DNA sequence: AGGGTGTTTCGGCGGGTGCCGAAACGTCCG
DNA sequence: CGGACGTTTCGGCACCCGCCGAAACACCCT
């Protein structure tokens, strides 16, 4: 019965960590880190487990307030419960070992390459392109990494010229650094990271690849990213 | 044998979350969140488990790179592996339910009250006093919560007058918000939070209570905190 | 209504994990 | 040297947890 507990300790970390302490559930979370909602079967197939198993895992994750669910007809859609969960997972990933051994099949290799090049990470961009964007923004003095990450005045003006609405009045940090797990270097997150990603999607600079979390730079995006940010050619699609 | 895994997924979250997914190990971590090094037996007694059990748990936490250990003679000292682990635990605590039911014994109640009043949280201050400090700093315009937390110019000047050296050249954010698990409201963390805590200890404003993580406001601290920050009287020791 | 499909429930199985106490092992100190 | 003390190893036990398939259920569509 376990009566001996009389901890002066605070919140019950274990109850939050437990749902994440399983390879399959962790794999669900990594998939959901693209910020979209997945159905139970999609996640089951993604992780290679039976649908019934996926159900049980989703119950654990939803019950632990890590995922939010939304029922639509016979579908069960789940997504991360909020930015705080995405940041929690980032925190875990930052401590975690590299993982992901080189892929076996050719198609898997292609899929992985697409992901490593550009993808969404919750509500902002990740991958080589995102890291390059962050780098060039730093070089041009739009971001300052002096003590913690900061958006400079130039950065704010640049966003204005671009027509990116910077959300105000929110408690969310304007800019935040998020460790990119393919590049192992930080990319831009926070309110500005999210707004920039939304702008890139809205303006057709990037587009989702099928139903995956990978995104591709479009022809319009190539011109815009080269012109606005001077991104290196080898990251952009050939003319 | 588990051969079926072929995840495109990234880092292995589960291997990091697993060590934290146990009440006893979590209790160790909450204790270590005071930033100090504890011996194996101290932690065992704190959590109410056998020494042998504590050893196994510590192996798991150290092996998962969450704790750093230091052997001194027959003692095994452990502490959090770094600020990133402290922040990870904060992230978990922010999602976790309140926990900690009201204490049974009178002495436990006293201990808990001391902790709730003022304690260290890794390298900065926590508890009612810390939250009050954060609040008054905000009221006086030293901190700005507009969009994310920011140290104002006035804040920087105020620290200078106080003689608090603000570490420069580091990548660590100057100010960061950390959810206080007794007050359920944020208090000040980050480089400035740490510097302020160190200054308070060095100047004798506060002192550790025995060997616990609780701290008490000294007579000198009472005057300083009232004068420099206008902290409400009911949080300060009576004259 | 009825078939197809996504999801859930239920047993049952195998393995992993946390716990303990006893004994062994080191280190410190008198 | 020898006792005291902190730590570790080792069995052994109980229990929890993740997995599956089959069957039931719920919903959509024709």
Automatic annotation (TrEMBL), chains A, B:
CDD domains linked: HTH_ARSR
InterPro entries xrefs: ArsR-like_HTH, HTH_ArsR_DNA-bd_dom, HTH_Metal-responsive_Reg, WH-like_DNA-bd_sf, WH_DNA-bd_sf
Superkingdom of the organism of origin: Bacteria
Database matches in SMART domains: HTH_ARSR
Domain HTH arsR-type: from-to ranges: 5-100
Signal peptide: none
Descriptive protein name: Winged helix-turn-helix domain-containing protein
């Amino acid at each position: 019965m376990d009566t001996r507990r009389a901890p002066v300790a605070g919140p019950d970390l274990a109850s939050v960590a437990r749902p994440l302490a399983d390879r399959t559930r962790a794999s669900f979370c990594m998939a959901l880190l693209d910020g979209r909602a997945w159905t139970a079967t999609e996640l089951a197939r993604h992780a290679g487990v039976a649908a019934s198993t996926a159900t049980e895992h989703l119950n654990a994750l939803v019950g632990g307030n890590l995922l939010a669910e939304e029922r639509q007809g016979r579908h069960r859609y789940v997504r991360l419960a909020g930015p705080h969960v995405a940041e929690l997972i980032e925190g875990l990933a930052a401590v975690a070992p590299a993982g992901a051994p080189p892929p076996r099949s050719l198609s898997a290799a292609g899929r992985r390459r697409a992901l490593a090049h550009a993808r969404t990470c919750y509500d902002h961009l990740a991958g080589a392109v995102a890291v390059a964007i962050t780098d060039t923004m730093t070089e041009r003095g739009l971001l300052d990494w002096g003590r913690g990450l900061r958006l400079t005045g130039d950065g704010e003006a640049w966003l204005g010229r671009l027509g990116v609405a910077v959300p105000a009045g929110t408690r969310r940090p304007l800019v935040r650094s998020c460790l990119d797990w393919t590049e192992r270097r930080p990319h831009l997150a926070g309110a500005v990271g999210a707004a920039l990603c939304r702008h890139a999607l809205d303006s057709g600079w990037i587009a989702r690849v099928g139903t995956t979390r990978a995104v591709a730079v479009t022809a319009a995006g190539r011109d815009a990213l080269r012109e606005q940010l001077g991104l290196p050619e080898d990251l952009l699609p050939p003319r």
